[in-house]
Amino acid sequence: MATKATIFIVDDDPSIRLALENLVSSIGQPVETYAAAQDFLRDCPRNPAGCLVLDVQMPGLSGLDLQSELSHAGIFLPIIFITGHGDIPTTVRAMKAGAVEFLTKPVSDTELLAAIDQALERDRLARADRAGVAELRERYDQLTPKEREVMALVVQGLLNKQIAIKLNNSEITIKQHRGKVMQKMRAE
Amino acid sequence: MVITAPLCFKAVGRTKRADHAVNEFDGSSTIVDAADTIAEHSRSMSGSEKSIEIHRAKPAFRESEEHYRAVAEAATDAIITIDSDSTILVVNPATERIFGYSSEEMIGQPLTMLMPDYLRHLHTAGITRYMETGRKHIAWAAVQLPGLHKSSAEIPLELSFAEFTNDGQRFFTGIARDISERKRLQDRHARLARHAVLHAEVSAAVSESEKTTSEMLEICASAIVRHLDAAFARIWLLNNEQKVLELGASAGLYTHLDGSHARIPLGSFKIGFIAAVQKPHLTNHVQTDERVSDKEWARREGMISFAGYPLLVEGRTVGVMAMFARQSLDQDAIEALESVAPVIAQGIERKRTEDILRDTQRLIQAIFDNSSAVIHVQDLDGRFVLVNRKFEEVAGLRSQEILGKTSLDLFPLNAAAYVAGDRQVIETGSASETEEVFTTDRGDRVFLTTKSLLSDESGKPYALFGISAEITERKKAEAELREMQAELAHLNRVMTVGELAASIAHEINQPLAAIVWNANAALRWLALDPPNLARAHDSAELIVRDGDRAGQVIARIRALLKKTPPSKTLLEVNEFINEVVALTQTEMVQHGIHLRVVLANDLPTVPGDRVQLQQVMLNLIVNAVEAMLTVEDRERALLITSGRFDDSAVRIAVSDNGPGIHPEKIQHVFDAFSTTKPEGMGMGLAISRSIVDAHGGRLWIEANEQHGVTFQFTLPIATSD
User: Which end of chain B is flanked by fewer CB atoms within 10 Å, N or C?
Assistant: First the structure.
């Protein structure tokens, strides 16, 4: 997608929010800040590009809560957690849920910016992956049920003759279906 | 007097010896016969012996003879004529009446038959001497001598005598008047006079304040003895506590105060009985009276009468007075006793009151001097007029060095404060209680002094009274206690802040992190080509703001941790709540506690110590947070509210939804060392309550309807003055 990557910042502390916005802006990245997790859930784009810088402890919905809410909502964003005092169980839980980084204050600007770079890279890759899969799925959706059957057996490495016996078709029919599958799936 | 002496003499002067007289009449009246005889005799003499006087008065004489007879017959006085041998010649009817003899029994008998024994030889000797020498042994006009009645009783008589001579013979005529009645009246007057003297003496004795009670009673008893002819008189005093009569005075026959009558139980014997029934006991028959126990004694001593009177004051028995006499007591004597009894009773009562007063005065003096309080009295010009021993001790001066001087003279270092206090009392007229410092070489001593005005009956103040108790030690102890409490409070603050250390670190780390990032951002904005100065400027402003924020957090913590002497200022209630909330917010977030702060607008300021009140809030919040840590089945919720309690106070409440406190323990949560936390000292709530108390407010706990408890406290708002 052509969407420019945005750094989303969710922190209830105004000092932190403003400082992060300032720092990220200074490297030329677009920034959006939110004072509460609920705000972000409500207002964020459906298919965001970029990463989320998230405070772990917040009144109301916490950082970890937001993480799982986003996952449920099918919104994929790499998350960099920042915490005042990281404890191991919280960290483990966050990383298992797919956090990119878990930073404990004090966090230097280089550390943070490096984490953001990394997150953006991962997002790009993930987005690309997600884009490829989506295209294949689109192509696959164009196959007829017969073609899908043939394709499943082709993928298993069976020969046309074997497939024809299995599907109780003539070899020539299978060859035609195979040609259609290869064409529709743009397999070379 | 009916009869005049000259006529009498003349008449008798013509009388011949009575025994020669011939009764020419019916003899019904001897004196008439005698007078007639004299008259006859005179007649017979008239020729030969013509006294010029009689001769000249011849017709008148006849007349007077008659007259004499009538007078003599009618006379109430006895008229007796004797010869020089004292033989009775003529008597008149009154003589018979007065002496009880008939004229026959008397005429021809010696006159001495009409005299008591003891006068007879005097009469005989006297008349013999008179005959020889002409010297009278008694005066002849209105002499009072007793006569002897036929019944042997003596008769008080007033006698007048005359002498006449007839035929060379000397005759004497006596006129005897029975003055029994007069004598009786006189005696009575004399007695009444003595009674009056008795009353006067008793009255004088009881009103004399110099005398002791026993001296007074002694005078009364002896006055009774003297003026009522008592054998002896006694006065007992009632000892009301012991219900016993104590012999206070005894005069007359017995004067000792010990012995069997010294103490008589109320109700016992006749004296105790008189006291008990409050009625006098009188008898003129002591020797047979049933109330007299020792009749043998009474007979031996010849006691005839007894009179005992209760001494009553307003219906109360104060004693008993009693007397024995060897003669009967007449109504006058009884009345005299009746009249002195209340006087003596009053006297006893007054003495008793005086004794109590004297004792009280002595007591007051003793208290005054032995008091550990420092007592002084100053006149309105500030000169000391009275100081007690303790005052001398404290001042290190003797009273003669103090009296007449002022505070300024004696205590120049402290006088200004003393005089100001004195003046205030004098000007306002109301008592004051102030702490006064007395500076000595060995340091200041502190006294709590109460000063008040002393006023006379009209309410006019005349002096200043001061009583001081030394409170130096107490003040020291109080100061130490305060210091200890402050230490404890400080320790509590340190510990509470320690518990919040992580949260507090976070509170400081947030702006610090922001500062670092903003600074880095600024550097980047400046490094751009061209540099973005606007954003760099914004960054610098953010840095300044964050720096301030961090500084404030540190300042608050420092204030909480600093040992500062308590200082009261006017506080915005919501402000100090918010500051504490800010320190604990992270703590709550961390523990997943939902905090709601509902603060009333327009709350009045309260006078208070910011640090102390924040400590109270801190304790309540930390307690609430800890209480809720076990809650897993519901959202942990903390509610902090402020509002008006009433017209004069605001109310601050901290309410949790934790497990609550057992009803049996709920009232003990404010006790020191009462804690549910293993690491706690249990001082937090105790200290919080003492802080609120010191602010004139109240801190209490209530169980919530559903979950948890609410701690709330009131703080009095600033009064307009």
Answer: C
- Nearest CA to A106 out of B552, B526, B550 is that of B550
Sheet holding B593-599, edge to edge: B593-599, B636-646, B649-656, B709-716, B699-703
List the helix and strand counts (H, then E) for chain B: 23, 23
Quick check: A85 and B502 CB within 8 A? yes
Closest chain A C-alpha to B641 CA, distance in angstroms? 19
Burial bucket for residue B379 (CB in 10 Å: 0-12, 13-18, 19+): middle
Task: Give B423-482 pLDDT, tens digit per residue.
Answer: 999 999 899 999 999 998 888 999 999 999 998 888 888 899 999 999 998 888 888 887
| Residues in A touching B516 (Cβ below 8 Å) | 106, 108-109
Say if the Cβ atoms of B595 and A59 lie within 8 Å: yes
Is B173 within 8 Å of B162 (Cβ atoms)? yes
Sequence-ordered list of residues with C-beta below 8 angstroms from that of B642, at least 6 positions apart, any chain? B573, B574, B577, B598, B599, B600, B603, B650, B651, B652, B653
Contact A59 B589 (CB under 8 A): yes
Which chain A residues are closer than 8 Å to B581 by Cβ? none
pLDDT category of residue A46 using cuts at 50, 70 and 90: confident
10 Å CB burial of residue B415 (0-12, 13-18, 19+) is middle
pLDDT of amino acid B446: 92
Distance in angstroms between the alpha carbons of the first and the last residue of chain A: 25
Distance from CA of B421 to the nearest CA of A (A): 60
CA separation for the pair B692, B682 (Å, rounded): 17
Chain A environment of B538 (Cβ under 8 Å): 22
Express each pLDDT in B343-395 by its tens digit: 999 988 888 888 888 888 888 888 888 888 899 999 999 999 889 999 999 99
On whether the pTM is more than 0.80, the answer is no
Average pLDDT over residues B650-667: 87
- Tally of CB atoms within 10 A around A110: 9
The yes-or-no verdict on residue B82 having pLDDT over 80 is: yes
Q: How far is B633 from chain A (nearest CA, A)?
A: 17
Chain A CB contacts of B588 below 8 Å: 59
Quote ipTM for the complex.
0.78
pLDDT given for residue B675 in this prediction? 62
Give A19's contacts in chain B (Cβ within 8 Å). Answer: 513-515, 517-518, 521, 542, 546
Four-point Cα dihedral B576, B578, B584, B589, nearest 10: 170
Interface test with A, best of B504, B520, B548 (most A CBs within 10 A): B520
Q: Tens of pLDDT along B639-651?
A: 999 999 998 999 9
B549–A19 C-beta distance less than 8 A: no
**Residue B521 scores a pLDDT above 90:** yes
Q: Answer yes or no: do B535 and A22 touch at CB < 8 A.
A: yes
